[in-house]
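Readers of this paper often ask what the protein records in our data store actually look like. Below, we set out a record of this kind in full and without editing:
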Amino acid sequence: MNVTPTEVAIGVGGLLALVVVWRSGARRARRAAETARASARVVSLAGRVLLVAAGMVGVQWLVVTHTADLTLRLGVLALPDLVAAYVLTRALTVTELGTTRRRR
């Protein structure tokens, strides 16, 4: 079997092109996965905020409808405001956009 230098160069070039395409696909997939993780974090946080808010509304409704004590009513209405302010501040404050990996 006789292989010319041109055929060897074409074969090596083809293998090199295959490796480059393969690596770029892996990078693209990694970026897509990181983006999906970041959006999942936001959705997860929103779900937790809604669940806590529903719990607070339920407790407030029970206390307001079943008690006449003014101090208890004020406490039940003021405490969730403090918690909600903390949760909203935490949810709306962006400290980092996600983890980025740098290759050397």
In short: The chain has a mean pLDDT of 81.
